[in-house]
Amino acid sequence: MTAPDEDQGQSQGDRLTKAMLIGDARRVAETPCIVREDDSLVDAARALSAHRRIDIVMVVDGAGKLVGVIPARLLVDELFLQVAPEEFLADIFDRERMEEYGRMVRARTAGDLMRAPVYLTAANTIGEAFKLMHDEDLEGLPIVDAEMRPSGYLERLELIKVWLQEHRSGGLAS
């Protein structure tokens, strides 16, 4: 038995959506939320609160290059660790959560709390963006230029808009 063709069962709209380049999507140029490694967590919270539709704080070094990201969930967890510590104690026996908890307790700056950078470039496809968001459990991703400087932000809502754009003539995909 032969392996089915990867595109078998996909509509033309699905294939176009998956292959569309990030740079061709309509609204990926949301103003990114950027802080420096040595900025305080309060500074990171203020920066994120000024960006209503962004779910990632992009952490840059002195040259403005992306060195890490702070998902909004992680920042909120860190800020509320002092307010409601009992909410964190139930999860602390899971090794991964224990490590995250330990990092949160010690975090004072964006660099302390950030995790490894996860990003896209304009040359990535919408399909790659969806996979990365799904794999990393993120609501959006930074877009960087060739020098690793943040240039935009792609959110899940934009993925929906791209899908609708490519499927508008044929209704919903079957």
Strand and helix layout:
Layout: H1 12-19, E1 34-36, H2 41-49, E2 56-60, E3 66-71, H3 72-81, H4 86-89, H5 95-106, H6 110-113, H7 126-136, E4 140-144, E5 150-155, H8 156-167
Parallel strand pairs: 1-2
Antiparallel strand pairs: 2-3, 4-5
Detailed description of the structure:
- This protein starts with 11 loop residues before the first helix and ends in a 7-residue tail after the last helix.
- With 174 residues, the protein is of the alpha+beta class.
- The chain contains eight helices and five strands, in the order αβαββαααααββα.
- It has one domain: Roll (CBS-domain), CATH 3.10.580.10.
- 26% of the residues are buried.
- Helices cover 40% and strands 14% of the residues.
- It is globular and about 50 Å long.
- Strands 1-2-3 form a three-stranded mixed β-sheet. The protein has a two-stranded antiparallel ribbon with strand order 4-5.
Structural key phrases:
174 residues; alpha+beta; CBS-domain; 3-stranded mixed beta sheet; two-stranded antiparallel sheet; 8 helices; globular; disordered N terminus
- Report the helical percentage: 40-55%
- Residue-averaged pLDDT: 80
Number of strands: 5
Radius of gyration: 19 Å
Strand coverage percent: 5-15%
What is the CATH C level class, in words? Alpha Beta
User: How would the global form be characterised?
Assistant: globular
CATH architecture: Roll
- CATH H-tier superfamily: CBS-domain
How many DSSP helices?
A: 8
Structural class: alpha+beta
State the end-to-end CA separation. Answer: 25 Å
CATH structural fold name: CBS-domain
Low-confidence stretches: 1-6
Q: Characterize the biggest β-sheet.
A: 3 strands, mixed
When the domains are counted, the total is: 1
Give the strand line-up of the largest sheet.
1-2-3
The run of helices and strands is HEHEEHHHHHEEH
